[in-house]
Amino acid sequence: MKLGFIGAGNMARAIINGLIAEQKISGEDVYIHSAHKSSYESYAKEKGLNPCESNSDVVKNAEIVFLAVKPIVSKDVLEEVSTEFERKNPVLVSMVTGVSIAELVDALHFPAAKIIRIMPNVNVEIGEGMTALKATALKAGKKVTETEFSEVTDLFDSIGKTTEMEEKDFSTFVALAGSSPAYVYLFIDAMSRSGVKYGLSKRQATEIAAQAVLGSALKVLEASKSPMDLVDDVCSPGGTTVAGLLAMEEYGFTTSVIKGLDATVAKDKK
After folding, report:
1. pLDDT score, position 140
2. Domain 178-269 has CATH 3.40.309.10
3. Please, are residues 34 and 7 in contact by the beta-carbon 8 Å criterion?
4. Contact by Cβ (8 Å): 107, 78
């Protein structure tokens, strides 16, 4: 399977690195181009990828083309490659935030385009990603076929978990999975700074906090109980944990998290 990447930013690299690490692809299977050679040539050389002279060259060589550019330039990029897409009609996998499948089709000037919209997160790089997918007319057997959708889904299942959802819910997914790693990193850092406050080294405190978050996340995924039930399990009557929880809530912990996700959703919908 030949994969093409238009754009070589952090998310594109996270996907490529994850797929190579999981031995799902080899570097020679990947064709890549970006606006500036400095942003992809050295990376392509490091990973053994095929650097291309243009976006159209990526489309010519790939069976699945990933669009990994900023929303502001996505229309111009698609217009640039529209002729090659119409000639070859590979599957287009877009990870462009806030740009719908209908808008992608319009930009390509190709109504028969086979498009899958995805929203991954950076944890695909370590095989622990979460990716949402939506395809054009999948159920009708037109445009993207079941086989093509399965091939793309299989790629992301190899570097994490996937879920199929409607486009109207993508902004919510962005908040819950796309942006949330930054929020979790912030939470871990806040915990580790508290450890430093009480005499631990930053490295040791961060390791402790990160492992606690990792174990807790795995517990949520494996347990039949709700997260709040698990909270209650840890809280002994009159104990240290409930004292800490009440202090966090006094300063607006749950409200601040929800407000942060509200702001993320609102920004994505603009």
Report:
1. 43
2. no
3. yes
4. yes
- Write out pLDDT tens, residues 40-96: 999 999 999 999 999 999 999 999 999 999 999 999 999 999 999 999 999 999 999
CA nearest to 30, candidates 80, 74, 66, 54: 66
DSSP H or E run through 261: helix 253-269
Strand order in the sheet with 30-33: 50-51, 30-33, 3-6, 64-67, 91-94, 114-119, 129-135, 160-164
- Fold of domain 3-169: Rossmann fold (3.40.50)
Residue owning tokens 């054009």: 136
Q: Where are the domains of the chain?
A: 3-169, 178-269
Q: How far apart, in whole angstroms, are the C-alpha atoms of residue 240 and residue 242? A: 6
Q: Is the pLDDT of residue 266 over 70?
A: yes
Mean pLDDT of the chain: 94
pLDDT at 137: 62
How large is the average pLDDT for residues 3-32? Answer: 97
Cβ-contact 55, 27 below 8 angstroms? no
Q: 110 near 85, Cβ under 8 Å?
A: yes
Residue 171 near residue 265 (C-beta atoms within 8 A): yes
Question: Structure pTM?
Answer: 0.90
Residues 6+ apart with CB under 8 A from 82: 107, 108, 109, 110
CB of 68 within 8 A of CB of 8?
yes
Query: Could you tell me how many residues make up the chain?
Result: 270
